[in-house]
Amino acid sequence: MSPPVVLGIAGGSGSGKTTVLTHIVREFGSDPIAILDHDAYYRDLSHLSPEKRARFNFDHPDALETQLMCEHLDRLIEGEAIEKPVYDFTTHTRQKKTETVESRPVIIIEGILVLAEASLEERMDIKIYVDAADDIRLMRRIRRDLQERGRSIEGILRQYERTVRPMHLEFVEPSKREADIIIPRGGHNQVAIQMVMSRIQELLRSVEQETVRS
């Protein structure tokens, strides 16, 4: 049996990664796709006070338990199911419950730093970087953090200035060099997204043919 196709989607916070992912799932359906979001692997900060959690640098690679994600990815590639962590962004803690993820023909790993981590990047068959202007990304981040994570405008802008932008320049932006495909203008570039769909279809077709021959 042929191994799954592993697709990596990176890009700055608010670049449109989720939009691209939604297009892919809509095109192929959810049945053949397993999703590993890097955000689920943030380290549990329950041992820290709320004040220290608020000052934590969530945009540095060390904030994420990437080794655990690699172990889970390897198990999915081997055809095994995994228990993905569930992270609470309002308290910055990892919940006791987990989410079962079954192995599928296509495995998508998504997150701002997935191309900045060599241990993840080397496992990918297709590497995508979703690009968008800084002001667009900031507006999307403000909207998301207000609506989904219960944060204040002051807190969002303080975090953006203190960690998000510096870490983007140090780690995220340089990882664009590792991409096979760069999607400019975020998740609304239909031409580039269609090219990604075609490439996934080609890889799936080759996997099916190898499975038949074996």
What does this structure look like?
The protein is of the alpha/beta class and 214 residues long. Helices cover 43% and strands 19% of the residues. It has seven helices and seven strands; from the N terminus they run βαβααβββαβααβα. A hairpin with a 4-residue loop joins strand 3 (82-88) and strand 4. The N and C termini lie close together (7 Å).
Features:
214 residues, alpha/beta, Rossmann fold, five-stranded parallel β-sheet, two-stranded antiparallel sheet, 7 strands, 19% strand
TL;DR?
This protein has 214 residues and is an alpha/beta fold. It has helices at 17-28, 50-54, 66-77, 118-121, 134-148, 153-172, 190-213, and strands at 5-11, 33-37, 82-88, 93-101, 106-110, 126-130, 181-183.
CATH class: Alpha Beta
- List low-confidence stretches: none
User: Percentage of helical residues?
Assistant: 40-55%
Mean pLDDT across the residues is 91
Q: Architecture, CATH level 2?
A: 3-Layer(aba) Sandwich
Span between termini: 7 Å
Total of domains? 1
Q: In what range is the share of β-strand residues? A: 15-25%
Radius of gyration, in Å, reads: 17 Å
> Mind summarizing the main beta sheet?
5 strands, parallel
Q: Per CATH, what is the topology?
A: Rossmann fold
